[in-house]
Amino acid sequence: MALLSTHGLTAHYGQFQALFGVDITLERGECVAIIGANGAGKTTLLRALAGVLPNRADAIVYKGEPIGDRPADAVLRRGIAMVPEGRKLFPSLTVEENLLIGAHARKLAGPWSLEAVYGLFPILKERRHGPGTALSGGQQQMVAIGRALMSNPDVLLCDEISLGLAPVVIRDIYNAMPQIRAGGAAVIIVEQDIGQALKVADRVYCMMEGRVTLSGPAAGLSREAIHNAYFGAAA
Ligand SMILES: Nc1ncnc2c1ncn2[C@@H]1O[C@H](COP(=O)(O)OP(=O)(O)OP(=O)(O)O)[C@@H](O)[C@H]1O
Ligand SMILES: [Mg+2]
Questions:
Q1: What pLDDT digit, counting tens, does each position of 108-123 carry?
Q2: Is residue 106 part of a domain?
Q3: Residue nearest to atom 29 of ligand 1 (CA)
Q4: In the chain, how many domains are there?
Q5: In ligand 1, which atom is closest to the CA atom of 85?
Q6: What is the mean pLDDT of the chain?
Q7: 203 falls in which pLDDT band (50, 70, 90)?
Q8: Is the CB of 15 under 6 A from ligand 1?
C-alpha cells in the first residue's frame, strides 16, 4: 500500500475547475517530482494534499486512511507538512521563532529539532535571533523548509523551493535533500526546473491543465516525452 495516494482528485476555485481526476502515489521514503508549466495545477495539487482545499474523503488516502475531507491542521498533525510557495515566514518573528512554530503544529518525537535543523542549515543558527525577513531569499527558503521539518513529517510537500534563487543557493538547498530523506520523510517537490527535478526525484509526474499527462521513473523519461506532456503533443 502506498504511503499517500490520490483517487480522482479534483479541485475548484469558485466556478473554475483546476484539477480533473488526478491520481498519484507516493511510497514510503520516495521522492516524487511534479513538473508542468505555469497554471498546470501543481500548487493546487499540493494544497489539496495539505488539506487546504476541501475534497471527498476518499480522494486522498494516507496510511490507509481517507483524509481528503480533513482540514489542514488535522492533516499536518497526521504528518503531512508543506513548504509553501513564496516561503510565507512570519515577518514579526525571529528565525528561531519561525522554526518553533513548526514544532508547535505537531509535537512528535523524531529526527528533527532546532539543533538538527541548524545542523542542516548552519547559517540559520548564526541568524537565529534576527528577523526572518532580514535573510536572503535562499536563507528564508531554508527557514521555510526547517519550519516544516520541525513537525517531524512523514511527508514533506515542497512548492518551488528553488524559485528566484541563484544556482549556488539552489545547490545548497537541494544538497539538504538526502539528509531530509534519511530522516525518514517521503518528499513531493514541485519544480519548474526539469533538470533539477529529474536529478533529485525517483519518479516524476508531469501535469498540464489540471491533469497528469506523463508519469514514470525520473531516469526513464525522454526529453521528447516531457516536452509533449508539458505543452501537448501538437506543440
Ligand atoms: N486562488 C485562486 N483562485 C482562482 N483561480 C486560481 C487560484 N489559484 C490558482 N488558480 C488557477 O488554478 C490553475 C492552477 O493554478 P496553480 O497555482 O495550481 O498552478 P501551478 O502549476 O502551481 O502554476 P505556477 O507554476 O505558476 O505556480 C490556474 O489556472 C490558476 O489561475
Ligand atoms: Mg505553483
A1: 789 999 999 999 999 9
A2: yes
A3: 39
A4: 1
A5: 27
A6: 94
A7: very high
A8: no
Q: Which domain holds residue 111?
A: 4-229
Ligand nearest to the CA of 20: 1
Q: What is the CATH number of the domain that holds 125?
A: 3.40.50.300
| CB of 84 closer than 6 angstroms to any ligand 1 atom | no
Confidence of residue 84 (pLDDT cuts 50, 70, 90): very high
Residue 84, in any domain of the structure = yes
Over residues 114-139, the mean pLDDT reads: 94
Nearest CA residue ID for atom 17, ligand 1: 43
In a domain, 234, yes or no: no
Question: Does 235 reside within a domain?
Answer: no
Please write down the HEC assignment for all residues of the chain. Answer: CCCEEECCEEEEECCEEEEEEECCEECCCCEEEEEECCCCCHHHHHHHHCCCCCCCHHHEEECCEECCCCCHHHHHHHCEEEECCCCCCCCCCEHHHHHHHHHHHCCCCCCCCHHHHHHHCHHHHHCCCCEHHHCCHHHHHHHHHHHHHCCCCCEEEEECCCCCCCHHHHHHHHHCHHHHHHCCCEEEEECCCHHHHHHHCCEEEEEECCEEEEEEEHHHCCHHHHHHHHHCCCC
Check pocket membership of 111 for ligand 1, CB cut-off 6 A.
Answer: no
Ligand 1 pocket residue status of 87, Cβ below 6 Å: no
